[in-house]
Design goal:
Number of strands: 11
Order of helices and strands: EEEHEEHEHHHEHEEEHE
Strand content: 15-25%
Structural class: alpha/beta
CATH class: Alpha Beta
Strand order of the largest sheet: 6-7-8-3-9-10-11
Bound molecules: adenosine-5'-triphosphate, magnesium ion
Distance between the termini: 41 Å
CATH superfamily: P-loop containing nucleotide triphosphate hydrolases
Number of domains: 1
Radius of gyration: 19 Å
Helix content: 25-40%
Length: 270
């Protein structure tokens, strides 16, 4: 049955994730309400340990919530068996992990082609598509390199190429520019912007406030909850503007015109 076009891509209600038991019990997510529409580019910020990666893992079906409701494209995904979850991931979700996660025994081309294995694309086509996307990242000369032969920036670009090879509609990026210099960060961010312009939905965790100018919405988390949720003025549409990536957060925090709601603070603290 066709779904209404305006249905949110992601809808989470009072989502919780508990780790540990007894004295070690800890809520990494402690009541997250989040609705994401198709085509949003969301930057997620917040201090270390506030639950950003946990949230991305649950959105990407790599982990399950302890409590609450999660609808992906309008479907309840809580009770999916692992095979079904893997299928959804293979077709719809692209991950860019914090620690790259390239497979050490596979070369660059094989790493990038890997997600296509799960979506049933024939071998030759997989290699061709991986090769094409690597060209887009100016990495065609590195196709037969092993991961340990790449620089940090190259490794991250390979990881992004791999996340995009199956043309996912949702891209989840956990600090995609975390270890990169300013120039490499720009290349990665411009690439993500292009993907966003094609109508894809992006959720990106970042510690760098200057990168939020690429986003349409900025969410900050605190102690497993959404603390602020801000619609970004569309600075990123000014193509001539060169965004500073390495400067302090000062300019950003003084920016006017952003609409902020403090959704989670409305909830009574336990
Ligand atoms: N598998 C796990 N077992 C137990 N605790 C966990 C597990 N994964 C995460 N946690 C805890 O949950 C909390 C949130 O972790 P998470 O990785 O989501 O933080 P984060 O916001 O991504 O931090 P960072 O910015 O450092 O990456 C942390 O206190 C962490 O110790
Ligand atoms: Mg993290």
């Amino acid at each position: 049955m066709a779904k209404p076009a305006n249905k949110p891509v992601i809808k989470m209600t009072d989502l919780k994730k508990r780790f540990g038991v007894g004295d070690a019990e800890h809520y990494a997510l402690d009541g997250v309400d989040l609705t994401v529409k198709k085509g949003e580019f969301i930057a997620i910020m917040g201090p270390s340990g506030c639950g950003k990666t946990t949230l991305l893992n649950i959105i990407g079906l790599l982990d399950r919530p302890t409590d609450g409701e999660y609808l992906l494209d309008g479907d309840n995904v809580e009770d999916l068996r692992s095979g079904q979850a893997a299928k959804i991931r293979a077709h719809r979700i692209g991950f860019i992990f914090q620690n790259f996660n390239l497979i050490e025994r596979l070369n660059v081309l094989e790493n990038v082609a890997l997600p296509l294995t799960y979506s049933g694309v024939p071998h030759m086509k997989r290699i061709q598509r991986a090769s094409d996307i690597l060209k887009g990242f100016h990495l065609q000369e590195r196709e037969y390199y092993m991961p340990w032969q790449l620089s940090g920036g190259q490794t991250q670009r390979v990881a992004i190429a791999r996340a995009l090879v199956n043309k996912p509609s949702i891209i989840l990026a956990d600090e995609p520019t975390g270890n990169l210099d300013s120039k490499s960060s720009h290349i990665i961010m411009e690439e993500l912007s292009e993907i966003h312009k094609k109508g894809n939905t992006i959720l990106m965790v970042t510690h760098n406030p200057n990168l939020t100018t690429y986003a349409t919405r900025v969410i900050t988390m605190l102690d497993g909850r959404i603390d602020t949720d801000t619609a970004e003025p569309k600075l990123h549409e000014n193509k001539n503007e060169k965004r500073p990536l390495n400067k302090s957060a000062k300019q950003k925090s003084s920016k006017k015109g952003a609409k902020t709601t403090k959704s989670s603070r409305r909830k009574a603290k336990k």
